[in-house]
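User: I'm curious whether this sequence folds into something compact or stays loose and floppy. Could you predict its structure so I can see for myself?
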Amino acid sequence: MDLKPRYEAYIACLNARDLDGLDEFVSDTVIHNDSELGLRGYREMLAGDYRDIPDLRFFVERLVCDAATVASRLCFDCHPKAEFMGLPVDGRRVVFHENVFYRFAEGKIQQVWSVIDKTGIERQLFDL
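Assistant: Here's the prediction. I'll summarize afterward.
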């Protein structure tokens, strides 16, 4: 399976905030950063992100795929409502990146490893 269009459709699903449509892309037993969330937990995580960041949109800057893995650099330009990653953002605009790897099996995301550039957010908030 060509994972590039599959991943792009997943990102479109996220940007449409179609939490019910996630089951097309995400395994029932998905693991996120070594936590066994399952599809329900994954939905809850994203619902919290959408609630805390009303203008959240996922922009793919880099994308590399092989037969079972997607590596992506995502960019976010948004206004988290209050605290984000333990930082007092309080509605200010922040631009940050996430580097994320996905392991696919049978066309669905089985495992996610995600690292968000918190230092970049701190630089914007505290003029470091």
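Summary: The first helix runs from residue 3 to 15. The two ends are 44 Å apart (CA to CA).
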